[in-house]
Prior knowledge:
heterodimer, A: disordered N terminus, B: about 325 residues, mainly beta
Amino acid sequence: MKINYISLRPPITRYVIPALAVMMLWSCSKTVDEPTAGISSPSSLDENAGTWKPYLLASASEIPVAEPKQATSEDYKAELKKLKDATDAVTPQQREQINYWGAGAVFRWNEIARELCARYNSPPASTPDGKYPLPDAANPLKDPKFPFANPPYAARAMAYLSVAQYDALVAAWNYKFKYNRKAPSKNDASIKTLLPVSDLPSYPSEDAVVAEVSVVILKAMFPGEVPYLEAKLAEHKHSRISAGLNVDSDIAAGSELGKAVGAKIMARAKTDKMSAANGQAMTAAMIANAKKIGVTEPWVSQEFPPRPPMLPTYGFVKPWNFDSATVVALRPEAPPVIGSPAFQKDMDELLKIAKGQTREQARIASFWSDGVGSYTPPGHWHRKGAQLCHENKYSEVRTARALALLGTTMQDAGICCWDVKYYYYYPRPNQMSSKIKTSVGLPNFPSYTSGHSTFSGAAAEVLAHIFPSSKKEVDDMASEASISRIYGLIHYRFDCEVGLATGHKIGSYAVQRAKTDGAE
Amino acid sequence: MQHFSAPKLMAHNLLIHYSMMRSLHQKGLRLLGILLTAAGPLCCAYAQMPNDAIYMGKKTACLAVSYTHSSWDQYWENSLKRENLNIGTHTTQSVMPMLAVGITKDFNAIVALPYVWTQASAGNLRWQKGVQDASLWLKYRFLNKSGFSLHAIAGASIPATNYIPDFLPMSIGIQCKTATARLLASYRHKSGVYLTASGSYIFRSKITIDRDSYQADDRLYNSNKVSVPNAYDASARLGYLKKAIQAEGFIEYGACDGGDNIRRNDMPFPTNNMRATLVGVYAKYQPKNIGVNARASHAISGRNMGQSTAFSVGVLYQFRYAKDANN
């Protein structure tokens, strides 16, 4: 069988060149398409939100907001004229910014906070002498950067952000409907608006309130990002003017209110015991206690050099939806005795996965890994919560409420889980068998219970209550997040199952609040 | 007198070096190395195409199988040279069958498909293993005069399996599809001494990862698509080739065309601008149809990758695949 190969040559070159050209074209595009968020168009004004129960403000009117000038006043007319000039001079770049912020003020600031969590989620590197330097809040950009936005830190930052946004918006709604200043374009039809206009009163501006209060919180949480945050703040406020939606006095009143609420919220942050959450001096007593209650081989760091465990006294930080005594009451029963049949059963499962992790197991482990450099599990769930609010056409204040319920339960979950972790001081599977290596990175703190599972159980409980039609979806997500830690080879099944169940219990406290906060 | 295209194997080795660079502990997710292996000098598609001026004769083919062992215990985190006690020594090994076919004396095709496995001597990162990227190279000598020759080489690679691309440095590759365009010039003196130089550009596709959020370019992307930078490489080799013996020394440089750096104390990621300069030696002995080759290389400088030292050995078998071979 002879084949004449010579004849192949011209056709091959003829095909190869176009084929290469096609490949080059396809590989030339370096743009990554990210999901875009459409312009927010709330299905309800939530007129009564001024009566909803705030978290920290004594009442919606605790912080006074002055009565605005009358629509008929010369001052207001001058503001309208200025607004008209601004909208006439909108640049394409401003147009883009208008649309960006038009997706929702709470929605965008939540997204910004998640990004900051990810960017600051880097564990300090060890020094040549085997020590791990502590991040320094006074020098936030010096290596190691402050903060190390690990899951407990991120949970707290996001909780304060969402609570601050919610309280500020409840106050704003109170004044909006008290003073009832119509939107500028409803006072002057010749004003061109670049976003939908509703009947929501425009004074004080909800966007300015959210932007300002968010920046107060985020500056404190991420002190190295002050210039970035101030630029975002200015851009956000200006976008409302160039969109024709708020006059200067709407913005100014919102800014003042936001700042004042932010200060109230930060007063709690300064006394919530977070500053004592890295109580390394207490670990010796914790280990002794764990041994006393039957943990024969307490957790030790598997890193080289050994890294001090993450925030061992975070369990003493002040929770949101219950008190510290409840944290102890929610503590689950002890994990299986090391070496017992129950322990061995779950260990055997891990040894099997260690040998033959399937691609699907690896995918699930990776999807939920939310490890170093990510926005952490609380960030993952905030993203889901924000998405659900957007899809369900929630108003700003209702979005803030959903995320505050979610955010507070996330931090509650973190506090309870950290309490459990350092109470039992239970070893990671990797410590018990060198055959077990992870495909997602090994967290540097005790095993029982799983943080992912606790966060996810609490999140699913709250989101299922707020969005009943999404209950199955969020429950499935939580189950997958939980089991992902088994697939990733860093948790025993009992860590995950007990963590998930405890998370649901923790979430039920936020649900209880949701039923009585006046919004349902 | 038929020569084998074994050099491609070598190229592959380079790739592996690149792949090694990944390191870091603790974060756990991303594994990148895979990419490197697969590609060319830097990334994905390098695989084996010749960076040589040697051709199979018409109607002859060469089947080669090579084994490569590449390891590093230091890497460049951005430009910071460091060790990582949670990785220890990172090792990438591979076995790669490769077939080079002489279609005409001036036109060869080469295909290869490596099996790659990784491990770290310390820490808790899980090994990865699997069949990596299939590659095809076409090599065309369009000028050949008085010992001087010019060659146009085109390559493409495509991931052969669904391995994990972003668990660097443990991943066996980065899942890019690649297309490479290479120009190679060579001069061979009658004595057998030759000098070869080449340069290439490697187009790399976007990849899809298991997560729907990741950091790159100092920002957070809310997507599972990752834009991997293109890459380029250059090499020079000085050697001796006569009858059954070939021996050469080489220097190779590979870099990404853009990309970001490994963040402080973080894991590598497919978007990193990996760069390395390798020096090495290569030798082949092929008295008859059966031959052997060996190669060693070492990274003398780099960025965002491991400082790898690699060794490979191969067995070559040359045969006619059609009668009337006429070379």
